[in-house]
Design goal:
This protein is an alpha/beta fold. It contains 6 helices and 10 strands; from the N terminus they run ααβαβαββββαββαββ.
Length: about 200
């Protein structure tokens, strides 16, 4: 009889452990994004002031021996002028692209862009090196919320060319046949500014 009690007790304990291990962990939007983003190979720098954004941008450029950036965003051009960073307005595959984004997708760690940042170019035809400036107010739970946010924010003049960077590591192969020939992998630095 003791044998059956021990066996049954062991089974109950392992079932409890299994249920504990299977419980879903609910992370905040920012924690979820950072977790997925870093697991995909993204580089993340958290900034609490604009001077930190400027300093981190300079350090990124120095670390990678980049002399200039491509930038088409008027607000970000102010940061480059303050730091005497050479800027070109035309896209080049060899020059890092300093840009903003539409949203940060928390459940996948993706970064959503539109024609506001890319114009009519596809992500695959832009530089493989990205430096993205984003704010904590740009977090959304999933792609659907991101698209709804774009539609709401730009009602009447919805941007086109909506796409996202889904991978930040060139060594990982994407087997998704839907993205064949359209490689959205980027060597990406994220300058995340706390604005809430």
């Amino acid at each position: 009889m003791n044998f059956f009690k021990k066996l049954f007790k062991t089974y109950q304990e392992s079932s409890k452990e299994k249920k504990t291990n299977e419980q879903e962990v609910n992370l905040s939007l920012d924690d979820s994004f950072v977790h997925h983003f870093i697991n995909k190979g993204g580089k993340f720098l958290y900034c609490t002031s604009m001077s930190e954004v400027s300093n981190n941008l300079k350090k990124i450029l120095q670390e990678n021996h980049w002399n200039k950036v491509t930038c088409t965003d008027f607000d970000l051009l102010k940061i480059t002028k303050e730091n005497n960073i050479s800027v070109q307005s035309h896209f080049s595959t060899s020059t890092p692209f300093f840009t903003s984004c539409e949203h940060l997708i928390a459940d996948k760690g993706d970064i959503l862009f539109s024609s506001n940042q890319l114009g009519s170019l596809k992500l695959a035809s832009v530089s493989k090196h990205f430096i993205v400036y984003a704010t904590t107010s740009q977090f959304v739970k999933n792609t659907s919320e991101g698209l709804t946010g774009i539609k709401t924010h730009f009602s009447g003049n919805i941007p086109t060319n909506i796409s996202s960077v889904k991978n930040y590591n060139f060594e990982v192969e994407d087997d998704n046949f839907l993205s064949y020939g359209n490689n959205n992998t980027k060597d990406l630095y994220l300058l995340l500014f706390e604005d809430l």
